[in-house]
Amino acid sequence: MCIFVKRMCKFLNISTLKLKMRVIRNRLLAERRNWRQDHPHGFVARPIKAKDGTLDLTTWECGIPGPVGSPWEGGLYRLHMQFREDFPESPPKCVFVPPIFHPNVFPSGTVCLSILDAKKAWRPTMTVKDILLGIQKLLAEPNDKDPAQAEPYRLYTHDMKAYECAVKQMAKKFDASVVHFD
């Protein structure tokens, strides 16, 4: 009896995992389809290609244009979006590659934003479009209550002119007319 129960439990765990993976795959395929049909001008978001040439739906390469009228304007900022195995219950991890100079971006490039935190504002109904627009808004409107990087935070809160100068230099470095996604 005990062996039968163990086998059934193992079978159920494998079946549950397969079902979960199918749900995630279907959701990410829908995200891709929706993005291709309707996305904001200047943004890029697409799954990366695996070494075997297939699409890796769990890792997306994205580009976020700097908000118009902000020191970020003119730049196109690369970001990797990594969907976890419990997506959409938990948000994807979003990392700027290379890391950017921003109060709410860790030195590793990881974005610190409430909608990317399952314990804060994340909702399973959020889309890739919602996430990228939220990050774009964060570029121009940092959250000084939740800093992730000391130097940008210090400049943002104590020397806005120096902060804006540093951001404008970065926008030139990541000029949208030069940054390409192949």
Automatic annotation (TrEMBL):
GO terms for cellular component: chromosome; nucleus. It is found in: Nucleus. One of its GO terms (biological process) is protein modification by small protein conjugation. Keywords: ATP-binding, Nucleotide-binding, Nucleus, Transferase, Ubl conjugation pathway. CDD domains: UBCc_UBE2I (cd23798). One of its GO terms (molecular function) is ubiquitin-like protein transferase activity. SUPFAM superfamilies: UBC-like (SSF54495). This is SUMO-conjugating enzyme UBC9. It comes from Trichinella nativa. Residues 23-176 form the UBC core domain.
